[in-house]
Amino acid sequence: MKHETVETNAGLLIILTLAVISVGGLVEIVPLFYINDTIEDVEGVRPYTPLEQRGRDIYVREGCYTCHSQMIRPFRDEMLRYGHYSLAAESQFDHPFQWGSKRTGPDLARVGGKYSNEWQVQHLIDPRSVVPESIMPGYPWLIENDLKYSDIQARLRALRRVGVPYSLNDEEYQANVERFGEEAARWLDINRAEENLVAQARAGNYDGNPSRITEMDALVAYLQVLGTMVDFTQYDDGYFVQFR
């Protein structure tokens, strides 16, 4: 069949297009029925603490995702620069997730612990003071604005409705103890959300000012946890192939 024949026959073109789309769809969908899960079996991944979740809200509010992805692709150059490629398991509690391919700035999937709190604060206030070639705008108001967290329980309840395992009762709390451990379960208790948020902010002192809890505290707490939950030294190089 000549290509010209296909292009000049609208009905035939539609039929062949639908056939190609159908085959492509089946190739994508059928394998899902033959694997147990699309989430990798790893230890350590937990939902965000109340303070980290408020930091994530601020991250989204300020549009950080428009210049920074949180998805390291399984390519050698990206893994050499950023670390192990991103796992679906690491974003299973993210609503919305921050995957993507648009990067004006570096990928942030594993930025946690890479820099000190002081560096992060200075970078957010005046990016060019620490990275002269940066084109990132400054966010000085983050350290000036007190963090609003009176509605933190409502925020966590909303996330609970879409499947994030924050606990409201003793049964759910005990389930989190078994799944994430005692310490993590305490952080994920909605009934103690405000108490936990304040405790983490004061203990971490992320913005360098222990007398206040600012939006900077929350955002830095969030940035410092990114990519730190999974200990990749526990897994062989080929372990994750079975989930791909």
From TrEMBL:
GO terms for molecular function: electron transfer activity; heme binding; metal ion binding. Coiled coil: none annotated. Residues 50-184 form the Cytochrome c domain. It holds the Pfam family FixO. It comes from the Bacteria. The chain crosses the membrane at residues 12-34. Keywords: Heme, Iron, Membrane, Metal-binding, Transmembrane, Transmembrane helix. This is Cytochrome c oxidase, cbb3-type, subunit II. It comes from Thioalkalivibrio sulfidiphilus (strain HL-EbGR7).
